[in-house]
């Protein structure tokens, strides 16, 4: 049985997530160091639609990864 992993990020819309956490997780994924089955759940006080949040994080990954 393959285990599933969930990474929970509190303050997901913040600067730490955008500049450090998301780019680091991306680098781990790119290098094949993430589990086979995983997902990220982000919690924040800021309101974002799913697509707007993805764009926010993607911009951080492009700039800082």
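-> sequence recovered:
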């Amino acid at each position: 049985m393959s285990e599933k992993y969930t990474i929970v990020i509190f303050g997901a819309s913040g600067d730490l997530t955008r500049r450090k956490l998301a780019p680091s997780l991306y680098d781990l994924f790119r290098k094949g160091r993430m589990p086979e089955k995983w997902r990220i759940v982000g919690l924040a006080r800021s309101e974002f639609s799913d697509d707007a949040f993805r764009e926010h994080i993607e911009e951080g990954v492009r700039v800082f990864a």
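The first strand starts at residue 4 and ends at 10.
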